[in-house]
Write a structure and sequence with these properties.
The structure holds 2 protein chains of 2 kinds. Chain A is built from 3 helices and 4 strands, in the order βαββαβα. By secondary structure, chain A is α+β, with helices and mostly antiparallel strands. Chain A has one domain: HPr-like (Histidine-containing Protein, Chain: A), CATH 3.30.1340. Chain A has a 4-stranded antiparallel beta sheet. Chain A is globular, with a radius of gyration of 11 Å. Chain B is an alpha/beta fold. Chain B has 4 domains: 121 residues, Glucose Oxidase, domain 1 (3-Layer(bba) Sandwich); 114 residues, Enzyme I, Chain A, domain 2, CATH 1.10.274.10; 170 residues, Phosphoenolpyruvate-binding domains (TIM Barrel), CATH 3.20.20.60; 134 residues, TIM Barrel, CATH 3.20.20. Chain B has 25 helices and 16 strands. In chain B, the strands form 2 sheets. Chain B has an 8-stranded mixed beta sheet. The chains are: A alpha+beta, B alpha/beta.
């Protein structure tokens, strides 16, 4: 089980497009992936779930990953956040 | 609703004209049926406990319809022009398969015995409220994306319930229609359709033209003002819906309808007969196909098989990587069956140039860059091998042929042949059904290929001249560039010289030579091309009846004379003039009096 903090860096926040990127990436791994914000936890493989986080720029989320490929999965997702989902920071 | 498709009186209100854009010609006279106009309605009647399974099935059906509708929304333009738009459409697709949505919806249907629509609406409303609480205005607006999904599914639910209720022989008015709707309504005897949304190049418009269903899109006025049962006329040429037509209007449109129908009947007759000239020379008139829906209408256009199945839209209209080998097998099988007893020619993916995948570096000069067979051979594992395997497997269903885009070097044909051999061997080892007899053809669109035509004719099983690109490369003109576009003409003598050279190479080696560019559907170009010696033409399905009718009325000897003169002309304008004069001299006006032919 990996637990780490990720921060939304892109200006527009975790809107529809980044949410679908995140889910596409998450779905490539077998590991279970969750994101938590202020006690509200959602499945990282659900685009609606990710959207309901309504995470704006600067929001900090807890990423929880568990499974055989958890290391790779956590890195891939953290990279997306770090890279601002390829959007303007 | 009146059971008569042809009301004799206008019974209510003054005549009203609603203007739009005509996308499929023809006249329809009948009674209106309003189909999903305005926001969808949700059925709030509780369902019986024993109806739960049925309601779950209704939900699945609606989700499948909604997903199909989303697929159709993904045009190439979306993909290339708006990556953002494409991503949102893809997100909507993901939402339709999202357990965070489907789980609670199914649960509510099972335990609360509400309809699928009500369950969906209440679950999505909960999510929308949560997003709506955000302090970030942009994120708050994302509730629109959820609302759009909701509307799509609710509409799909309505459709599933209403198509069967629509009375036969109606003129349907709707906000929007999908290709599936149109096909289902057509089976219900649809007379015509009018929508507020839609584009002239949408699948629906193409299908409406193909099925001879008069259609108007972009109706300016809100169609909410019209009622089911209103008597009306659709003029698919002028792009007009006339509600409560006066007696005079009706009379006028009845005459026009009769004329249109007799023209279609003559075309249909021409289409069902072989394309044989008056001096007994046979040509193969084949269809260019881009959308799966077009496969269903080849027979009524009298297509001698498929001369060009483009695969770019099939790939680009799906999310990256989603057009898997299995999905390809299904589409190519369908194509093989649709072309039967003739062959179906599938062109390998022609990416690059004006059709780029969203990834990959932008090229300074894409037309001369990494495109077509070059790209496929450089990265065979990703696209080439799966496509070849799918073709070999689907080939058991009919007679497929494979066409290579952008061929420049003889070696490229040989390398594809070895890939075909390797994949056929692999399929044998895997014990999978396939048919290794897959003729290989080369597109002649690069001048080098036309100049080496003799060698290519010996190497390939058939040749297909792509006049669009060949003209662009020979004349060094980008026809999408307004400043030079007027210098582009496939009837330029230099282009015709290469066509002649290619046709001669085909004749000497017994290799069929087709033309599959737009000029194959241009009435002025066709007699020249046939005179130059091409043996097949492949054009948009709706052009085929007109082409056959033209060919049936002229002789090969006359076309040979025209072609000889054209090759000796000094410029394209002269050839155009010769072709016009030739047509005026040899072809009666009535033969060409077909809107589908004169406007390629």
């Amino acid at each position: 089980m990996i637990e780490r903090e990720v921060t939304v860096r892109n200006r527009a926040g975790l809107h529809t497009r980044p949410a679908s990127m995140l889910v596409r990436t998450a779905s490539q791994f077998d590991a279970e992936i969750f994101l938590r914000r202020d006690g509200y936890e959602i499945n990282g493989k659900s685009v609606i779930g990710v959207m309901t986080l309504a995470a704006e720029q600067g929001a900090t989320l807890t990423l929880l990953v568990e499974g055989e490929d958890e290391e790779d999965a956590a890195n891939a997702i953290a990279d997306l956040f770090e890279d601002g989902f390829g959007e303007e920071l | 609703m009146s059971s008569s498709p042809d009301p004799t009186t206008s019974d209510a209100g003054p005549e009203r004209i609603i203007e739009g854009t005509g996308v499929a010609p023809g006249i329809a006279i009948g009674a209106l049926y309003r189909y999903n106009v305005g926001p969808p309605e949700v059925d709030r009647t509780p369902i019986a406990p024993e109806a739960v399974e049925d309601e779950l099935a209704v939900l699945e059906d609606a989700l499948a319809r909604a997903e199909q509708e989303i697929e159709q929304a993904r045009t190439i333009a979306d993909r290339i022009l708006g990556a953002e738009q494409a991503a949102i459409v893809e997100a909507q697709r993901m939402m339709l398969n999202d357990e965070a949505l489907l789980g609670p919806v199914r649960e509510r249907i099972r335990t609360e015995h509400v309809t699928a629509g009500q369950a969906l609406q209440s679950v999505l409303r909960g999510y929308r409220e949560r997003i709506g609480e955000s302090e970030d205005a942009y994120l708050r607006d994302r509730t629109d994306d959820l609302l759009e999904v909701e509307t799509r599914v609710l509409r799909a639910l309505e459709r599933g319930r209403t198509v069967a209720q629509i009375e036969p022989n109606a003129i349907v008015v709707a906000d929007a229609l999908t290709a599936t709707d149109l096909i289902q309504l057509h089976e219900h005897g649809l007379l015509g359709c009018v929508t507020t949304g839609g584009g002239p190049h949408s699948h629906v418009s193409i299908l409406a033209r193909a099925l001879h269903i008069p259609a108007v899109i972009g109706a300016e006025e809100r169609l909410e003002a019209v009622e089911t049962h209103d008597r009306a006329v659709v003029d698919g040429q002028a792009g007009r819906l006339i509600v409560h037509p006066s007696a005079d209007t009706l009379e006028d449109y009845r005459r026009r309808r009769a004329r249109q129908q007799s023209l279609w009947a003559e075309q249909a007759q021409a289409a069902s007969a072989p394309a044989e000239t008056t001096d007994g020379h046979s040509l193969s008139v084949q269809a260019n196909v881009e959308f799966e829906e077009e496969l269903q209408i080849l027979k009524e256009y009298g297509a001698d098989g498929i001369g060009l199945l483009r695969t770019e839209v099939l790939f680009l209209s799906r999310p990256a990587g989603a057009f898997t080998e299995e999905e390809q097998v299904a589409v190519y099988r369908k194509a093989a069956r649709a072309a039967h007893p003739h062959s179906a020619t599938v062109r390998l993916l022609d990416l690059g140039g004006d059709k780029s995948l969203s990834q990959g570096p932008r090229e300074a000069n894409p037309s001369l860059g990494w495109r077509g067979i070059r790209l496929l051979l450089d990265r065979p594992e990703e696209l080439l091998r799966p496509q070849v395997r799918a073709l070999l497997r689907a080939n058991t269903e009919g007679a497929l042929r494979v066409l290579l885009p952008m061929v420049t070097h003889l070696d490229e044909v040989r390398r594809v042949r070895s890939v075909i051999q390797e994949e056929a061997d692999r399929l044998s080892r895997e014990g999978r059904a396939h048919d290794p007899t897959l003729p290989v053809g080369a597109m002649v669109e690069v001048p080098a290929t036309a100049l080496q035509a003799r060698a290519f004719a010996e190497e390939a099983d058939f040749l297909s001249i792509g006049t669009n690109d060949l003209t662009q490369y020979v004349l060094a003109v980008d026809r999408d560039n307004d400043r030079v576009a007027s210098r582009y003409d496939p009837l330029h003598p230099a282009v015709l010289g290469l066509v002649q050279r290619t046709a001669a190479a085909g004749r000497d080696t017994g290799t069929p030579v087709a033309v599959c560019g737009e000029s194959a559907g241009d009435v002025h170009a066709v007699p020249v091309l046939i005179g130059l010696g091409v043996t097949a033409l492949s054009a948009t399905p709706s052009h085929l009846p007109g082409l056959k009718r033209l060919i049936q009325h002229v002789s090969r000897a006359e076309m040979d004379a025209l072609a000889t003169a054209a090759c000796e002309a000094s410029n394209a304008q002269t050839v155009r003039r010769q072709a016009r004069e030739w047509i005026a001299q040899h072809v009666e006006d009535a033969v060409l009096d077909a809107p589908d032919v004169s406007s390629p």
